[in-house]
Specification:
Layout lengths: L7 H19 L4 E2 L1 H8 L3 H9 L5 E2 L3 E3 H12 L5 E6 L3 H13 L3 E8 L8 E2 L2 E5 L3 H8 L3 E4 L3 H13 L4 E4 L12 E4 L2 H23 L6
Parallel strand pairs: 4-5, 4-8, 5-7, 8-9, 9-10
Antiparallel strand pairs: 1-3, 2-3, 6-7
Length: 222
């Protein structure tokens, strides 16, 4: 099957497999079975085999997968066999944290620019990178041929920022602003709303607490 025919759900699982393989290689594990991959990822072995089958045959029946070989294949499939240049728009607390982490811990990306509208932030540094004014964004994106951007701006300006980025040739956006972006069909957006994730997690914590309280509150016979 072609790369474009793979469902989005499959594409989202590939980086999970890649992270596991990175860890296994650091531990000098040369061969891994789909069963062990299942234990490491939480996905079923059948699901893993089906996901990988979209892109070819990478394992040996009865033996498993060579970790280095599979990692190299996944890097090429995802497009991480060379560093991806990206820009970060918004240098608040979240923007700084994401920039700092990706600059120091993520070998697959190269942050070529961090931009903010706040003059108090412009000129300060994150991991040796100077925060630049929004006005400089166009020159950097065009000069570096950037296609990927992270948005960590307030919700009320996120759409305007996205429109500007798209006009400059950005085709993939990781959106941390708590709002839905309206983009053309050729632009891909992944939304990462940390507030919603936390609130949904709290629901489960409260449900567990209610069940525990309910179990302790046993009605007494009259």
């Amino acid at each position: 099957m072609s790369r474009k025919s793979a469902p989005k759900s499959v594409i989202k699982r590939l980086p999970v497999y890649l992270r596991i393989l990175d860890n296994l290689i650091r531990r000098d594990v040369e061969i891994i079975s789909s069963r062990v991959l299942s234990e490491e990822t939480g996905f079923t072995a059948e699901q893993i085999r089906k996901d990988l089958a979209y892109f070819g045959a990478f394992g040996t029946r009865g033996t498993g997968y060579n970790t280095s070989y599979l990692r190299d294949k996944l890097l090429r499939i995802i497009g991480l066999d060379k560093q991806t240049r990206l820009v970060v728009i918004g240098a608040g607390h979240l923007g700084k944290a994401l920039t700092r982490y990706n600059a120091s811990k993520n070998p697959y990306v190269d942050i070529v620019g961090v931009f903010d509208a706040n003059p108090e932030e412009v000129g300060t540094e994150i991991e040796g990178m100077k925060i630049q004014p929004i006005a400089d964004m166009s020159d950097i994106i065009k000069a570096e041929n950037v296609k990927v951007a992270m948005i960590t701006v307030p919700a009320e300006v996120a759409q305007k920022v996205a429109d500007n980025l798209i006009s400059l040739g950005i085709t993939a956006i990781l959106n941390f602003a708590p709002t839905k972006l309206n983009v053309p069909g050729n632009v891909h957006v992944h939304n990462a709303d940390l507030t919603i994730e936390l609130q949904s997690l709290i629901y489960y914590a409260m449900e567990d607490e209610k069940q525990n309280l309910g179990g302790n509150n046993i009605p007494q016979k009259p």
